[in-house]
Amino acid sequence: MSEHAGRRVTRRRFIFWAALAGLISGAVFLAAAELFALLFARSASPILAVGGFVIDIVPQPFKEFAIATFGEYDKIALLVGLGLAVVIASAIGGILQLVRPPLGVVALVIAGALSTAAIVTRAGVTPLAFLPPVLGTIAGSIIMVLLVRRLSAWRASVVTGTPGAAPGADKNPDAGAGEDAEASGIAKPIARRQFFLLAGIAGASAVIVGVASRAVSMTVASVANIREALKLPSPGTKVTVPQGAELDIPGLSTLFTPNKDFYRVDTALTVPTIDPETWRLVIDGMVDERVELSFQDILDMGVDEYAITLTCVSNEVGGELVGNAMWLGVPLRDVLKKAGVKSGADMVLSKSVDGYTASTPLSALTDDGLDAILAVGMNGEPLPLEHGFPVRMVVPGLYGYVSATKWLTELKVTTFEQDEAYWTPRGYSAEAPIKFSSRIDTPKLGSAVDAGRIPIAGVAWAQSVGIERVEVKIDEGDWTAATLSTPINEDTWVQWFLEWDATPGTHYVAVRAINKNGDLQIEERAPIAPNGSSGWQRSLVRVN
After folding, report:
1. What are the tens digits of pLDDT across the range 141-158?
2. End position of a domain, from candidates 378, 401, 426
């Protein structure tokens, strides 16, 4: 191998080690930030703050794409993407520090400044929230300088070919003169040993400290144990589920969606963990008196059962972002009465512990004919952590983004003119009544079924109004009325089915609903934004 080729191989090898040094420095930055966040401000995690910032600024079409593509795993996909970005950026930083010092440290400082900005601009930020990313940046920069200094010394000794070469002998043109001069005086075995020793200690420490700090900060286990031990009071009134409310058809959605299968769409990268003992709900704004309620205060009002279907505005035609549950809670109108609503108010701005806000028409919360509630239980148990424990809002007839605030912490009585919620400036309507719809659950889209008599079945919903009729159309045939299950109430979905004599070939199955006001489900297709999708579902079925 020629001398030039040998130098090229050597340069590539040290570029690899420089990338490793950058990765370790980035890990130290994140681990130190997590540790200091645990000590000073638990919400000041750089990766979560940047993730939250990305969620806030990403254009609405990309949000819809993420939800449609990843479903309930969209947060995990975002975190994985951010993790890959951190890995790539850290590796590049290490290489820059080796070939053009101090650009690697400059890049790390810029990353720290961006993280700090993302943290201090979040809702509910504490005065010391800036410390974790700043101290993490300092720690990561120190490790980067120390690692690359030892790497430069090792490289200089290899290039000169003399472990103890005098300064200035055959310097590496990619490094600064001062760096090579210092490095060339260190023996190759010693410099290499020092690099790997520091890299090993720093890398292992970053993993241990980072993982332990995040685990302690999340405190999921302790809050989960509190939730498991929590005994909710028996409801004063219970929902009667009539005979025939659930059809026994394979592939059909169950009457009540199990908690583990209930859709989750929110802006929280990690599930907030809230001790019900310390939780408080503040009611203020256009009220006669500011009120602060504890979890026990809510329970002392007396809880009742409510069967209510929830729908996400991101639900596409035939989508699965809809679910039905048995909720335990208290009427929101009774909660608002404690504060006294002033005239002129027309909206309640609800706020989550993570800063998310929703704008709900005041009339939807105070109408005696609507069961808008503060929920504390779901399907016979305390709210799951991911579904708003300890308290969330559940409002029939409105899409979740304007009504179903989880991890609730504040109700501000105000006006639509004065305040706007999280999604309003992002292209969604301030008020969003649910567009009633229907869905085919079986046969599944694109699936093959055997010829013969089979059921076509699904669900339909028209929260706060109720479903009067569901009709099915096979290919170019007539619309045929399906058989409905017995509805629990007007706020829940109903199941439906139609027996079909399926013949071999490819067929199109369409469904539409009529609500109890006599309105026909909207046929025209509409996108999710600004106030929910519409259209009749039409599925392709292959019959063998």
Report:
1. 999 999 999 888 888 877
2. 426
User: What band does 442 get if pLDDT is binned at 50, 70 and 90?
Assistant: very high
Q: Are residues 51 and 112 both part of a single domain? A: yes
- Supply the DSSP symbol for 25: H
What's the CA gap between 127 and 52, in Å, rounded? 19
Same structural domain, 26 and 124: yes
pLDDT digits (tens, 9 = 90+) for 514-539: 999 999 999 999 999 899 999 999 99
Quick one: which of 354, 356, 443, 367 has its CA closest to 398?
A: 367
How far, in Å, CA of 142 to CA of 29, rounded? 10
The predicted model scores a pTM of 0.69
d(Cα 170, Cα 172) in Å, to the nearest integer?
7
Range of the domain at 477: 437-543
- E strand or H helix that includes residue 96: helix 74-99
- Residue 532 exposure: Cα atoms within 13 Å on the Cβ side: 24
User: Do residue 388 and residue 452 come from a single domain?
Assistant: no
H/E run at residue 291: strand 291-294
Least confident of 189-193, 198-202, 477-481, 514-518: 189-193
**Assigned domain for 168 exists:** yes
